[in-house]
Amino acid sequence: MHATDCFQQPASTAAFLAQMLDAPVSGLHWLASGSHTRVFGFDWQQRTWVLRVARSPEQILKCWQAERWLRHWLPLPHTLQQGQQDGFYWSIQSRLPGQPLSSLPPAQQGQLLPQILQRWADFQAAAPLLQPACGYGPLHWEQGTGFASWQAFLADSVILRADPTRWKHPAHRQAFERAQARYQKLCPHCPETAFVLHGDAKGANLLVDGQALRGVVDWATLGCGDWAYDPAALVLYLPLPLWSEAIGLTQQAYDRFDQQDLMARLLCYMLHSALEALIHLAPHEMPDSTADRRTADMLQRLAALDQLATDSGL
Predict the structure, then answer these.
(1) At what angle do helices 262-281 and 229-236 cross, to 10 degrees?
(2) What is the pLDDT of residues 163-194, one digit of tens each?
């Protein structure tokens, strides 16, 4: 069975799962996909499960490692099986209850923010630094994080190496160049503190049930660095009217942490996430309505970040 056929067709994917689990599965359906992963949901033995498929072992192994190290502080999916299939890497995980925070109306997201940010601050205050990670930035399986300092991670970003001429639209290019320059200006404000980071703690990866945080998924960017990086990612992807409230709630939830230059740090990390998202989205040789909408949304967020930085004197 070839992995390309197996994971692209529903029938062959279901057959693969039945072979791995020694029993038929039902209700197989696509959940999400990205540039490196595909995610399916299915039912087996009267429970719901998730199949994650990735090109790189990092995408699979770091989710498993996060469960081993961090399950005492956050609700994480349990890995039942994982393996390799003809160049693809896969894992079968329990499906956690709830729905993505980002799928809720803005008012409901705002109601949940105090609890989520406090829960995240408590987690980062208590969780031990990861082993064998011995540096900063995203954890790489078997090699540690690879950066001797947080500043080295920020300076090595693809953001600073990106060529703005890749953007054919002049307004897009100008927006990227302006944000790129501001990011470089803000980097020196970021300290060398070391905390466990999810690395992509946006609302799409936080599962809620309307009352509380019920699950945290997609730990492919697990790493170590300034604690403010995770709440910055959460704020970036919130509806724009919630930004001011969310920044204030971050200050309250993290009152025991070092908050020197906090606004500069949050802005820096929001720019980091936004610019990396734009680099991933552009340029497109063929028309892609979904990518075009995401690009437009991120450019709107860059404009809001520019105004927020200006208003803050940064």
Answers:
(1) 60
(2) 877 777 888 889 999 999 999 999 999 999 99
